[in-house]
Amino acid sequence: MSLKKKIIILLFLLTFPSVFYVLLTTGKHNFIHLPYFGPKELASNGKDTIYHSISNFSFTNQDGKTITEKDYEGKIYVVDYFFTTCQSICPKMATELQRVQEKFGYTKGLVQVLSHTVNPENDSVPVLRAYSDMVHADNTMWSFVTGDKKQLYDMARYSYFLNALEGGDGGPDDFIHSELFVLIDKEKHIRGIYDGTNIKAVNDLLDDIKVLMAEYAIKETKEKNKRDK
């Protein structure tokens, strides 16, 4: 594919929802894939690659509902860590996540946001509900979760790679404060990490979500075409 064609395809991707991109890229065109983050290994068949995936979890959201990894099966979602009394980076991060919500509300649940508290001692279900209302979160799309501190912190460190300091015990003196957003695909793989306080970085996140949506749409179209033959 020529450079000119690649630029044209990318411009359409950044401008329109992924369905238009599918129309342009199916058939003879090649497709742009997002990278995978984290450790990887070769499968036993010697051909396939096994990528890092998110561990199972169980937390409670702002509606008092238990949220697990099963709620995100078949979903694309953005992860962050925050606390409700934070006055430094968290308000900016919430504003940027509002952009994600506004941009992808039309997907009717395909794109989700999952915000974990780093201060579960304070951020109870009623506190998270008040915070959710304050930032005008769509509760069908954006969950704020609390739970066991050690599990919250282990997920941050070992599943999402949000803190370089390993070995924390989740105790009273353990604390994580990260400005990063993490993009997770339908197979629970990390496909992007972004500075949630930086508008340009979040613009990249919005574009990459479109790329990921298109990646799945093209895959589904190809699979359907095979079945129809």
What's a concise summary of this model?
The chain is an alpha+beta fold. Helix content is 38%, strand content 19%.
Question: What do these coordinates show?
Answer:
With about 230 residues, the protein is of the alpha+beta class. The protein has helices spanning about 5-15, 20-25, 90-105, 125-135, 150-160, 200-229, and strands at about 40, 50, 60, 65-70, 75-80, 110-115, 140-145, 180-185, 190-195. The strands form two sheets. It has a seven-stranded mixed beta sheet, with helices on both faces. Strands 1-2 form a two-stranded antiparallel sheet. Strand 3 and strand 4 form a beta hairpin. Helix 2 (about 20-25) packs across helix 6 (about 200-229). The longest helix is centred in the C-terminal third of the chain and has 30 residues, at about 200-229. The radius of gyration is 19 Å and the shape is globular. About 30% of the residues are buried.
